[in-house]
Each structure stands twice: as C-alpha cells, then as structure tokens.
Amino acid sequence: MRETFIDTTSALLAEDPRTALVLADISAAAFAPAAGEHPDRVLNVGIREQLMVGVAGGLALTGLRPIVHSYAPFLVERAYEQLKLDLDHQGVGAVLVSVGASYDRAAAGRTHLSPADVALIDTLHDWTVHVPGHPGEVPALLRAAVAAEGSAYLRLSVLHNDRPRGGDGALQVVRDAGPGAPLLVAVGPVLDAALAAVADLAVTVAYTHRPRPFDGAGLRALAGTEVILVEPYLAGTSSRVVSAALADRPHRLLALGVGRAELRRYGSPEDHTGWHGLDAAGLRRSVSRFLEPALVPAGG
C-alpha cells in the first residue's frame, strides 16, 4: 500500500498544481524525485510532526490541498493537538495518510504501534476515514480524498486481503446467508480472516473500507438481531455508530479488534494479529461463543 500511495501521490503532484505534500522525514527518500520536480509543493520539515500538521494547515489556508504523511502514531497521536487546532479549528482540510497501522512495525517497539488512531480521529468533526483492505483500493481512495473538501484519513497497512473490493465505502455483501442471519461487518484488511472464520456458519459477511462516515443505512438493511464488528484497530471503535444506527431495534453487538492491554512484545504483524485474536482461528472462537445460543439446532 505504501508504494502505491507514493506512486499515486507523485502523479497527483504532477497533474494538479493545487496538491501539496508535507513530510516529517518518513518516506522522504521515496519522494525525492517529486520534490525535485515540485520543490515549492513537497516540503520535508524533518522529525517535527506537530510542525508538519501546522504547515499543512497553513498551506490549506492558502488554497492548496495538502497530503500529510507519516507513521500512524506520529501523524495522529503525536500531532493530535495540531489536528484539532490547525485543521479543525481553522476550518480547513487536509488528507492524512499513515503507514504502520496498529502493529505493522511491532519490531520497532511501542513507539510505532497505534491501535487507537481511528478512535482519536473519531473525536474530531466530520472526518472521512478509509481503511483499505488491499493496495489496489488505494489509488481511487486517495484521488477521491484529494478531490474532495474537508479532512480525510487513509490508514495504510502491510496486511491486506487477497484482492481489492473497491466501492465508495457503502457496505458490500461478500457472503449472503439469507434474511435474519447474523451479520459480520469486516473493516479493511480483516475481511479474509473473517470469511475463513465463518466459512461453515450461516453468517452474512459485509465489507467496508470506510468506517467514517459509517454506512448506517446499509447496516439497517442487512442486520438482524446479532451483529459482529471486526476492525483492525482498537476494539469497539465503531460500536457507537453501529449502536446508534440500530438504536430502535433489539440487537446484540460483538465488537472485535485490537485489545486495550499492552502486550509488551515485539514479533511480526502476523504474530500480533494472532495474539489479539484477529486471525481466522481467534475470530472463530469469539464468533462461536457469541452465536452459540443461535447455533443450537431447534429442539436441541
């Protein structure tokens, strides 16, 4: 996804003189050719993430459309105050693009982990959040975000599904188990594991790469009594929007994602996926426990 983002952003800088890019050293070498061609619109502020967002806010005030890029914890957590003040409070927008996701760089330690980034963005006003599930989804999402107004956050990861799904972010039914079946909503790169987890269960599976704004109308059209939410970041991040969409209906919600407890381990992204129960086996255990009453045969 990172390479696709670099290629797409470089093309946007060449195509649209309104586009700018602000970096804080991360990916600066990869953008060196673009910086050579557009030195007034590709700015590297060094390892100063708060300044990076402040500069983006200033560029936006001049009418440019800034893309701001770094690792998720540096871009969202470290510079949160600047997102709040230099973008939201000033009434201007930018496109934030992160790498690292929840634990892609687990070998680098806790400084590079950011399972709470989407939850933090959710405290800001009217942001669009995209969590692509495949590199092939990135170009269209980035181009649409740059062409739009307001602020957007694209969360890139080394983890991905086997193929792109595309779409505008409305819930896509990937597996239909029929009316009244439990509904599992998978966000971004957790789709393949979710499909494997319920392969032999009567569970409808829907996919989205856009948790904000969440497709509440699509959820209402698909949901029965049991809803399972699987997200690749902090567990429960989208619980409030799911519950709000179904506020007038009796329902049960299981929210799965990255746990709140700090594991204090290194390992690989795949290791952390398993430790947080987001691999197929872990999801199967959680879903089976949740659905156990519904899975008992009638009269059993």
UniProtKB/TrEMBL annotation:
<dbReference type="InterPro" id="IPR029061">
    <property type="entry name" value="THDP-binding"/>
</dbReference>
<dbReference type="InterPro" id="IPR051157">
    <property type="entry name" value="PDH/Transketolase"/>
</dbReference>
<dbReference type="Pfam" id="PF02779">
    <property type="entry name" value="Transket_pyr"/>
</dbReference>
<dbReference type="InterPro" id="IPR005475">
    <property type="entry name" value="Transketolase-like_Pyr-bd"/>
</dbReference>
<dbReference type="GO" id="GO:0000287">
    <property type="term" value="F:magnesium ion binding"/>
</dbReference>
<feature type="domain" description="Transketolase-like pyrimidine-binding">
    <location>
        <begin position="1"/>
        <end position="164"/>
    </location>
</feature>
<dbReference type="InterPro" id="IPR009014">
    <property type="entry name" value="Transketo_C/PFOR_II"/>
</dbReference>
<protein>
    <submittedName>
        <fullName>Transketolase</fullName>
    </submittedName>
</protein>
